[in-house]
Amino acid sequence: MTPLDVTEVIQGMSDGISPGRRMVDMRRADITPFREMTQSQLFTLILRLVRMTFHFDTCAAFFYDEKNRRLVLVESLGMPTEDSGPAFISLDEDPAIQQVVSESKAIMLNTPETAGATGAPRIRSFMAVPIILSDQVVGTLNMSSVSDQPFQDVDLQRLSVIASQAAVLVQSLRTFSELEVAEREILETVPLPLVRLDFHSESCVVNAAAKVFFNLTAEKVGMEEFLRQTRAYLDLDISKILSEVRRTAQDRGGIEVKGKGEREAIMNLTISAIASADPAAAASGAVLVFEDLTEILHAREMAERNERLAALGQLAAGVAHEIKNPLTSIKGFTQLLRKKKGDANFLDKYVALVSGEVDRLDRIVEQLLQLSRPKSAKLRKGDLREVVERVGTLVGPELGKKSVDLRVSMPPAPVEVMMDAPQIEQVILNIVLNAIESVPLRNGIIRITAEVHPNSVVLSIQDNGRGIKPEHLEKLFDPFFTTRRGGTGLGLSVSHRIVNDHNGRIFVTSEPGQGARFAVEFPAPHPPPQRTPPSSRKSRS
Hints:
This protein has helices at residues 31-35, 39-51, 95-103, 153-189, 208-213, 223-233, 239-248, 294-337, 344-372, 384-394, 396-402, 421-438, 470-473, 491-501, and strands at residues 58-65, 70-77, 88-90, 107-110, 125-133, 136-145, 194-198, 203-206, 220-222, 252-258, 266-275, 283-292, 380-383, 404-409, 416-419, 444-452, 456-463, 505-510, 516-523. By secondary structure, the protein is an alpha+beta fold.
């Protein structure tokens, strides 16, 4: 492939050139080779196009050196090569060229002389047109001929059009160069390994961090070399992922890769596709960013470990407090037993108290076991309405003691969820018992409702009790946190654990004096796959 794919050369040269006609058409697929052109290569191409248009003996492109007031030769055709250094034209020594640069004016000179004093051919026709960028002359295109056919005005017009097109290309090349510098500066300031792949040239540009991590010797390497280094230092071959990105032009993120050997690290790889205008290739390139998560994950593990230790300390303090109270009572009555062992009333009171305190200790231990080693939930599809009905039967006596009105509103159709029915019964029972304690002695109301949504089922338990203080809401599911007299503070903790084991969630909303609402959300059960009935076969007669 040539450095620049020329798809439209100046057309209709014999008929003149309209000022708006394009000299070359650069497609998006040609941007990469164009960016890699040097200034000399660009003007070599321009002079070749000039040769297709004119008959000349010499043609040259110059850039203007404003500091030294001279034109410096960039590229030429037909001019002898000078070994003494770059050729230049001083403006102070050439009034005609000075006019081109100072006045941004194209000039054409023709002379009838055809030979010099020595008989050597002399220049008969000469043209020079300025190359203008942002209203400033940055160079010239010069052309000369010793032919008997002098240059015409149409020739000057044509050369001026080419010069204007050359100015556009020069500006584009400068812009690309500036973008490359800016891109390089950005790449170098990013501390993460960052790689830009070019699928057309099968090459990669890497920043300093990527160069060090993958042990690359240069900032620009072939794609095969880069992939070879990734296989050496990563536990994942990313070539298949890159092939997919190239084919689909779809970004990929959240790819976990681990470093090998001395580069041991846990990284998150993000691949951003660079779209291409070429229909045959969905992506022209991709940008790879390797984010090192090692320190973040270690810090997270440390925080979780500290959190577990803090929770264990809180749990131990709660256990000590809860067990100490009944043990103190038992110890006190045991010390009195020696003095009052003949007192029948005392013995009855002692037996009842010790039995109650032992039951309380047993209840605490049992709830602790449920919290620390919960029974694995055996999930089966069941009807929530049946579970709520059983809870209503169990709390009937407690409702009667406080004259609490339990109002259950459930859909007529089965409310099916995947659940371990006894465990969910325990959750609902714990919440309802707390609600009974919260509602007033008279006119207490507890409502149980269920809502079926496409992806979830929500069971709500709402009361008109005293509500929960805002500062207590965050601690509601903490072990041993309770505002109820005689409560262990483990019921809601166990309930929270059970709901989590069912892949559900539990929410609480409350305002002091306005009651509380507990909402338990279950994922909707997935319908069983429907079997396609076998197609009927027609018997052959």
